[in-house]
Amino acid sequence: MSEWWEATRDHRLLLQHCDGCGSVQHYPRALCITCGSSDLSFREAVGTGVVDSFTVVHRAGEPYVLARVRLTEGPILLTHLDDIAEPRCDMPVLLAWRPLPDGRHLPVFRSADGL
Ligand SMILES: [Zn+2]
After folding, report:
1. Which domains does the chain have, with CATH numbers?
2. How confident is the model at residue 60 (pLDDT cuts 50, 70, 90)?
């Protein structure tokens, strides 16, 4: 996962593409989950998707939204939704980045409505 995390320093979300069968997967694995090939390469995601499902997590402090986002390339990313008051399934979302203390970034998503 280190190459994947390093790319987040430059706000790049990498997806693993299989050069054998053309499928796209996330998270990165040693083998293609479709055909078993180890012929895999990283490409940058376009950063768009739709909400597949979500749950509002209530803890001490601010509630937050944990979501499964289906990326335009196909894979599902488990992530957070930022600044979305009323999330709904199939809502279009855009990639955003939340800084981490060590300079890496966590990929999160915001509403694409109104753009
Ligand atoms: Zn494959």
Report:
1. 2-111 (2.40.50.840)
2. confident
